[in-house]
């Protein structure tokens, strides 16, 4: 099967969140299963600076005026081929979505429409790659228009046989733009209506994908239920999802080439489930790095996350304000996000010596924290899948999660099954629930045999991409 995977992020070339990890690992898993996979990515300036091989295979004309598009083929990540779309609109920006002040770029619609049009052009029977694709995958709003352009091409020619599917990584980002810009998309006017791109009088690129994709996926079974049957989670798309009735939830996996404590080059001491006591070396290194009390008996909780209200950290701040930070527990927090939350985290760090805050994105420090802490806090209000809880369990680090979306699918709570437990649940998003969670975690942590059982349960879970890719391929074969 020939699969075209269209994405705005791809690890290790460019990453702002979990999409990049999925865009790297899922195509690789398909390729390992003997599928032919091409990943298409904008040729951002920092991407071009990183690739070793980027051979030009030609240029494309598009209806987007004055935008010369060059197609580059990168073979750095074989057996997956990476196709780079080189155009001036993707160059010289440190972040493709927002400027230095965090404001959306004014040309986001035009740039990602252009990218989606080029991706759709690659699905034509005759294309610059000389590959006849069976399946074309769009991801979130950035490539949602791929499905609309493919629908247009199918209407223009019965020779267009490629099937379009879409993956929702987070439906809370619908890709909304003013209706006045619709003509800039170079779609027929008939596409701007209730059964097209129109979303409460505006354009939604996420809706374009939901409307025209042959099949829709999202990144966990529980999140699929939430967005299909709840306005709170569905963001106004729940009716459309029920009407289309083609949504499948498949839990993301762990890329063990990147996240494996037995081979991780970032961490101080490698280990596995058979010598889990070696994990303590990483804890001591982390305590030393951040000048925390060096003791294996002192509970150390980590955070590796975007620091936003969606992730529940506004409620965590309310907990600290109301109850004070538990002084018997140390915290190491790594992340960037909403300015009001990061500002308050800095104040907490000034007031509590046991709270260390690093406002940054760091791949290496992410590994150090997940390997070094005893538990990882993930208090999300909603979470399509979540990857850090999967990484945590692989490293024998116990996840503390609010049971929503993929967090509920992947973590077995101690409160309901002490034998099979892999983590703890934050029962509700109230300040007192944080206090109760930390108290319960501390109590079980002090019972070393019980705690080690939870650690080993997590490490023995199978969150491989092999299972995930197989579930996708089963649906692909059904719809061909």
Distance between the termini: 10 Å
Number of strands: 18
The gross shape turns out to be globular
Strand order of the largest sheet: 3-4-5-2-1-6-7-11-12
Portion in strands: 15-25%
Please tell me the overall pLDDT.
96
Q: Tell me the major beta sheet.
A: 9 strands, mixed
Fraction of helical residues: 25-40%
Give me the Rg, rounded.
23 Å
What is the SS-derived class?
alpha/beta
Low-confidence stretches: none
Number of helices: 17
Q: Which keywords apply here?
A:
16% strand, single chain, 18 strands, alpha/beta, 9-stranded mixed beta sheet, 480 residues
Give a concise summary.
The protein has 480 residues and is of the alpha/beta class. It has helices at residues 18-32, 45-50, 108-121, 145-156, 205-212, 221-229, 231-234, 238-244, 279-289, 313-323, 339-351, 363-372, 388-394, 405-410, 431-445, 448-459, 465-479; strands at 2-6, 36-42, 55-60, 69-74, 81-86, 135-139, 163-168, 176-177, 198-199, 202-204, 215-218, 247-249, 300-304, 330-334, 355-358, 375-378, 398-401, 424-425.
């Amino acid at each position: 099967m020939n699969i075209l995977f269209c994405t705005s992020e791809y690890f290790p070339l460019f990453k702002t969140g979990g999409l990049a990890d999925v865009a790297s690992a899922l195509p690789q898993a398909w390729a390992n299963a003997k599928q032919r996979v091409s990943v298409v990515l904008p040729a951002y300036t920092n991407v071009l600076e990183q690739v070793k091989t980027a051979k030009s295979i030609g240029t494309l004309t598009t209806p987007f005026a004055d935008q010369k598009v060059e197609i580059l083929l990168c073979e750095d990540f074989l057996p997956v081929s990476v196709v780079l779309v080189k155009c001036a609109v993707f160059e010289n920006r440190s972040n493709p979505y927002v400027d230095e002040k965090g404001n959306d770029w004014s040309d986001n619609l035009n740039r990602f429409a252009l990218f989606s049009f080029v991706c759709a052009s690659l699905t034509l029977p005759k294309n610059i790659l000389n590959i006849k694709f069976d399946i074309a995958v769009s991801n979130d709003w950035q490539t949602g228009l791929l499905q609309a352009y493919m629908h247009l091409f199918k209407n223009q020619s019965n020779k267009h046989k490629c099937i379009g599917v879409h993956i929702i990584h987070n439906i809370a980002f619908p890709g909304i733009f003013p209706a006045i810009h619709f003509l800039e998309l170079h779609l027929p006017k008939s596409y701007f209506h209730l059964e097209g791109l129109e979303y409460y009088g505006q354009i939604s690129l996420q809706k374009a994908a939901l409307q025209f994709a042959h099949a829709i996926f999202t990144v966990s079974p529980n999140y699929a239920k939430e967005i299909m049957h709840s306005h709170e989670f569905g963001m106004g798309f729940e009716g459309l999802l029920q009407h289309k009735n083609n949504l499948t939830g498949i839990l993301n996996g762990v890329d063990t080439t990147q996240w494996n404590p037995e081979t991780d080059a970032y961490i101080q001491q490698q280990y596995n489930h058979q010598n889990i006591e070696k994990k303590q070396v990483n804890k001591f290194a982390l305590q030393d790095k951040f000048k925390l009390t060096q003791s294996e008996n002192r509970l150390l909780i980590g955070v590796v996350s975007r620091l936003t209200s969606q992730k529940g950290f506004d409620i965590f701040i309310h907990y600290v304000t109301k109850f004070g930070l538990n002084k018997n527990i140390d915290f190491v927090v790594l992340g960037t996000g909403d300015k009001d939350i990061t500002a308050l985290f800095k104040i907490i760090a000034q007031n509590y010596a046991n709270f260390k805050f690093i406002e940054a994105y760091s791949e290496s420090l992410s590994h150090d924290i997940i390997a070094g802490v005893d538990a990882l806090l993930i208090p999300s209000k909603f979470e399509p899948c979540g990857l850090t809880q999967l990484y945590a369990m692989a490293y024998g680090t116990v996840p503390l999660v609010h049971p929503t979306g993929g967090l509920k699918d992947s973590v077995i709570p101690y409160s309901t099954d002490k034998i099979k437990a892999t983590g703890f649940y934050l029962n509700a998003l109230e300040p007192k629930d944080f206090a109760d969670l930390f108290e319960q975690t501390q109590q079980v942590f002090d019972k070393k045999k019980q705690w080690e059982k939870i650690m080993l349960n997590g490490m023995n879970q199978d969150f491989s991409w092999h299972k995930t890719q197989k579930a996708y391929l089963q649906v692909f074969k059904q719809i061909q």
